[in-house]
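To illustrate the input format used throughout this study, we show a single complete record. The first block contains the structure-token representation of the backbone; no residue identities are included at this stage. The design step must infer an amino acid for every position from geometry alone.
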């Protein structure tokens, strides 16, 4: 049997296509053309507008020599990435309602909207437990801290997603619940004993595998108790081949997390890391760096025996199997009007109020934005959602830097603070705390009450230890900003 060719190896690569508000997908055109010419196995889409994404996905499939996996991270609905689609609350907010059917419906709506845009692989759900407040990565992305309950919820989410013809992805194996540093910034390790990891952290992954999950995403974290070589799980044959394949009997797609992250390519080039990831047991690689350079390294590794040809052929077959499974049927189940209406209302339902009640707003409402996340280098939604929603409801809402005498009603402090990739901390900045305290003191001097709105994981706003009425809105996504704006005006 002949060795895998360059075009075979290209099928295991999934580059990222990024959209920008200024130029759409135009800047990604050279990458798209190169990737299609090489014969990559798919793409991950980041950002875009619904119609543009649909057109691009159709174009990619038509120009490709084989069916493609078109992936996107849609943990919080298709609107998390794509303008015009429905944004949903984080998984933690939905599960806090105690309604497993709501979780199923959220997964179903997300998958239906994704399919209508040509996206056939949702890089979700997060199967990591929420065990530590100091963890810089998980927060509201998790389904909870109880391993057995999370296992049940994960299974429900995956079944609902895949019933709509969209691959689900259990991540980040074998679990990043105990991580205390951010792999987007530097390498990370978890020193928990193997029996604890297997008893708790792996439980939701076992459930996902039993539930037939199409793919598992690897973690870029090292687990010395599972592999004494102390390499990230993405590069560990011990974790991927022995634990995931042999012990847990997972025979579907193993996908790496982005291969350009410091957590996996520290001390090695991206191309070298890609060789090691395939050798360890990954089938497809997200964000594999410069395509030609990586392909050269993979081909050399096949030729010198570093990569087993049969190992590569298995990955090629797995990728093709799932790309064919997800190939568009003739009868896509489009989201119904009832689906999208339910999705729009879900954000209002998950709002929580602490230290209430929230006092009635004045005819003029002043809103000050305090942004603990402004220095984090990620694509963030604009911060106008609360004011926009209140204006739409007829209130004269104004974005201000400090309270004034223009309003005698409650003064709103909207705190944007969340666990974000690259943020690398779990505590508010001292400047953030000082800014909130100063605003509250200024409002008090004008004899005005204060209402806090937490736009992020509730743990961040609770760090302020303020006793004023507080609306917990779970994330800074526009859908949750708008829900918070409506929540401020709700008659109670």
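Output of the design step:
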């Amino acid at each position: 049997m002949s060795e895998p060719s360059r075009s075979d190896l290209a099928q295991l690569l999934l580059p990222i296509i990024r959209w920008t508000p200024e130029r759409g997908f135009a800047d990604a055109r050279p990458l798209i053309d190169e990737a299609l010419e090489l014969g990559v196995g798919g793409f991950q889409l980041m950002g875009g507008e619904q119609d543009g994404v649909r057109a691009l996905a159709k174009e990619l499939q038509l120009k490709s020599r084989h069916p493609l996996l078109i992936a996107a991270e849609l943990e919080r609905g298709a609107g998390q990435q794509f303008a015009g689609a429905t944004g949903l609350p984080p998984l933690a907010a939905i599960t806090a309602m105690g309604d497993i059917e709501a979780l199923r419906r959220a997964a179903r709506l997300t998958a239906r909207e994704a399919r209508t845009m040509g996206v056939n692989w949702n890089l979700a759900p997060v199967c990591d437990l929420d065990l530590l407040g100091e963890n810089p990565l998980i927060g509201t992305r998790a389904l909870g801290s109880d391993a057995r309950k999370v296992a049940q919820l994960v299974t429900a989410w995956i079944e609902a997603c895949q019933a709509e013809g969209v691959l689900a992805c259990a991540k980040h194996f074998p679990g990043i619940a105990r991580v205390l540093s951010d792999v987007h910034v530097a390498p990370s390790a978890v020193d928990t004993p193997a029996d604890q990891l297997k008893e708790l952290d792996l439980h939701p992954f076992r459930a996902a595998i039993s539930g037939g999950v199409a793919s598992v995403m690897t973690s870029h974290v090292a687990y010395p108790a599972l592999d004494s070589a102390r390499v990230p799980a993405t590069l560990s044959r011990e974790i991927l081949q022995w634990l995931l394949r042999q012990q847990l009997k997972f025979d579907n797609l193993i996908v790496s997390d982005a291969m350009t992250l410091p957590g996996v390519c520290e001390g090695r080039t991206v191309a070298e890391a890609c060789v090691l990831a395939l050798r360890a047991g990954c089938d497809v690689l997200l964000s594999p760096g410069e395509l030609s350079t990586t392909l050269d390294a993979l081909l050399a590794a096949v030729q010198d025996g570093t990569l087993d040809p049969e190992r590569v052929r298995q990955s090629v077959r797995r990728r093709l199997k799932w790309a064919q499974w997800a190939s568009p049927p003739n009868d896509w189940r489009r989201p119904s009007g009832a689906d999208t209406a339910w999705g729009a209302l879900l954000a209002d339902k998950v709002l929580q109020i602490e230290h209430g009640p929230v006092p009635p707003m004045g005819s003029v409402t002043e809103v000050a934005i305090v942004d603990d996340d402004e220095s984090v280098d990620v694509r963030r939604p604009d911060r106008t959602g609360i004011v926009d929603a209140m204006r739409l409801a007829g209130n004269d809402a104004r974005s201000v830097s400090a309270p004034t005498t223009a309003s005698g009603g409650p003064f709103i402090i909207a705190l944007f603070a969340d666990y974000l990739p690259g943020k690398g901390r779990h505590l508010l900045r001292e400047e953030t705390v000082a800014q909130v305290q100063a605003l509250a003191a200024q409002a008090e001097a004008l004899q005005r009450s204060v209402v806090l709105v937490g736009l992020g994981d509730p743990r961040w706003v609770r760090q302020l230890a303020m006793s004023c009425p507080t609306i917990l809105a779970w994330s800074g996504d526009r859908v949750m900003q708008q829900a918070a704006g409506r929540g401020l005006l709700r008659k109670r």
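Structural context for interpreting the output: The mean pLDDT is 95. The longest strand covers residues 364-371.
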